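Re: your question from the hallway

Yes, I did run it. Sequences:
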Amino acid sequence: MRILCIGAGGVGGAAAGIVARRSFFEVFVVADYDLARAESAVKSVPPELRQRFEAVALDASNKGAVADAIRRHRITHVLNAVDPRFVMPIFEGTAEAGATYLDMAMSLSAPHPEMPYQLPGVKLGDLQFERSGEWEAAGRLALVGMGVEPGLSDVFAAYAQEFLFSRIDELAVRDGANLVVEGYDFAPSFSIWTTIEECLNPPVVYSSEHGWTTTEPFSDPELFDFPEGIGQVECVNVEHEEVVLMPRWIEAKAVNFKYGLGNEFIDVLRVLHKLGLDSTEPVNVKGSLVSPRDVVAACLPDPATLGPKIKGKTCAGVLVRGNDKEGRPRSTYLYHVVDNAWTMENYGSQCVVWQTAINPIIALELLAGGTWTGAGVLGPEAFPSKPFLDLMAAPEPEGYGSPWRIREEDRA
Amino acid sequence: MRILCIGAGGVGGAAAGIVARRSFFEVFVVADYDLARAESAVKSVPPELRQRFEAVALDASNKGAVADAIRRHRITHVLNAVDPRFVMPIFEGTAEAGATYLDMAMSLSAPHPEMPYQLPGVKLGDLQFERSGEWEAAGRLALVGMGVEPGLSDVFAAYAQEFLFSRIDELAVRDGANLVVEGYDFAPSFSIWTTIEECLNPPVVYSSEHGWTTTEPFSDPELFDFPEGIGQVECVNVEHEEVVLMPRWIEAKAVNFKYGLGNEFIDVLRVLHKLGLDSTEPVNVKGSLVSPRDVVAACLPDPATLGPKIKGKTCAGVLVRGNDKEGRPRSTYLYHVVDNAWTMENYGSQCVVWQTAINPIIALELLAGGTWTGAGVLGPEAFPSKPFLDLMAAPEPEGYGSPWRIREEDRA
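Structure:
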């Protein structure tokens, strides 16, 4: 397996550090628009593990350049680790060059032109799924939404369907953290560009009765009690891939995603939107054309550099409500908690990007070993969940040493 | 009197419309960095009143250029109507060329390097007051802080001292409005650059016991009940010139300024500050160097263009607490309310910039007639208040037809 990882930001850098300890691949090429950043990601790998790595410059917005890089380095698997603006050129360049494709965020949505807060327009991933036939006909796989959320959350849902539930009433993805960044008034631990994109788009929700519908941003707030000391965090509906992925493979009456933004972050996003500072349309600032959202990102610290200053844990999981295999009511939260102190000590990566990056590496290892196989555009739900969760939880060196857990809910 | 008005933004444009109806001056030159904007301000004057107006290009940051313009047009009085970054070059250029100077905002403050929220560093206007001796020796006048707030509020305080009170315990300047701008989620009716500057600097307060001290931004919130239907608005301490002006001429135990920002605007300013978007230091956004605060301004509509979409009234005033001339406790709010519908109908200007612009024009008329005279750097308190208030309130054409009022407070 020869892997091209496109993007050497927080997630790409963490992926390099994780994959370096595994033996399943032959070469891991890190590509970035900024060659220095790709080189820096490679240099972050310990010297004794670095021989299978290479850094190259690549413009992810150019599908021809993506295809050229795949051919030049005889790549078999492309891991897309840049922000979702670049999904389509990478997806298409990979198809052209005939490699397997993996991403952690899917092609962008577009709101419904007349009823943006009631009906979806173009949904997340629609542009990819409409090409599924071509991929299937070519016998090639595009594994989409294979980060932590989407990704691990979808694996949890598949596991719940196979092993825990006979009927699923609700798949409620809940993502929250208690991270604080010392020395900053405000320092998001993940790309602000992506966070604005997902939080200010109309959230999509699914029900078997109405299919996919949308709501106003930040709708339906609830306090969710996250495990392992994180505690209660204000969660709101956010547009997320799980809602469009899970119903394609899992029978559930309802699917929704709520992100534990907390009141402070919600307030920040509301104000950015109110002032138009979330916009990606360039404005003229004394002769310079700049996108306000890029200015916001430039004013904030780079999340990839914050690791040593972060304290706390982040949690990804799915609350499943329904009936167990014996038909009794059951409500179960399947989750994965990562402590920043642990990821910093063991990988030198902050926990949020590490938790995102570990999942596609596990998936690549399962593909390399033939445990996961498939053709077409497929979500994580389309593959056996148990081998994935077992490999993640098993201690190193066989596994990745990162356990997941189940919490039975009292309210069931 | 030959007037040079520097700045053709909202206030400069409104000043042209107001002065056009008066006979006390010979020429009114409107200068702006952008000649087209100066020409547009002149064109906004009705054609039959336009013959005494001229538009010129001028860089307000260049004191030599300011002095040259004064000499070239044989200017006797300079009205500074640009944002307070340009106070010092205009002030110095005017001194060099030997004209009378008026402004509506004073030279900028600098926070105390160690204790910014306890002690003032460089106060508003300090850079101007330290030059007062030169102006006085030259027999020339710099009338500073002569807008509405500062300006009219200071005239009210002088009036209260002379005619209403024997002892003043507190001069509490309170500024509030109930303006809404149709069609916008968020559209400040005044320069966001200046609003950020004054609201995020440490607010200054005065007491006869401790002199000038500072607090945290947005400190000491109170609901103030504004008159004429505006109603209760959340007001907080804001750095403002009145607090440094009034104690120089009026004996008061305490002086403070609270601005009726309302909770929504306070929240917006807090978020801008938290994210560093209030900063004037350029950041690098994909190769372009831009100041985040300029980006915020570029994302918002130009306040000068909002007039037709605004509904509501704005109020400026001073609540004076102390003893009346007979020694009995008295608490009196002296105020000036302007309705946007009225300013739009009568002047084509929105109410906030109109209320700012009318005051220096009245002052210029009093200087032209010799009712106000003086030398040195002086605030509005240094001049007789009654002729000012009478001229403002008297119906046109003798006066400006804009009444002020007194409300006795029940709590006294």
